[in-house]
Design brief:
Elements lengths: L2 H20 L6 H20 L4 H18 L7 H21 L7 H21 L5 H22 L6 H23 L8 H26 L1
Helix pairs in contact: 1-2, 1-8, 2-3, 2-8, 3-4, 4-6, 5-6, 6-7, 7-8
Length: 217
Amino acid sequence: MTLPTGVLLTSMVLGVLYGTAFCWRPHSLLKLIVKTGSTALLALWAYLLGGPVLLVAGLALSSLGDFFLEADENDKFLLPGMGAFFAAHVTYIALFWALPQADRTLLILAAQIGLIACGVVFIRWLAPWVTKGMRLPVIGYGGIILMMGAAALRLEPAYLLVLLGALMFIASDVILSFQLFVRPADAPKPALPSIALWFLYYGGQALIAWGVLSNLA
């Protein structure tokens, strides 16, 4: 077994472990290690395979965001976590722009407009649930992740896995927004949405990495 394969398998084991045993449970050091380790190892895997710097950076910044979001049960590090993920999406946008682009078609344009329109409607619906001090960061974060999705829609068909991963990433953030802002703070975290959130998020990151690396190979 090669080192990159071992790193990927370890990441997958930690990812499955987190999704099946930890993601809905209260904060703990072990939970933090398992979650952050699973995504950090994806960044290491991409690096070992000679992946683009932007891909490695996007994965590493996402892992940093995981650390901040999991580091405190009272969400004291929510803003730094959002900042890390914001930077990750900016990095992914730059990465997608550097990859081969599909021809401009009405179908792609319609898909981009549809994605952004749905996102704007959702953010507008979510806004009243968000405290005033968090509304601007939430709007800014929502805008950048929609740009990331729109950029993925312009990729050549060979990068279908990257597009699927980007859309899964967006879907995970929709679920996360419900957990952070709509669910009452004193309500227990339900297991099923937490499991769906994690596997959409981790699977999305893995597909983005796999889609880029497989085309480079």
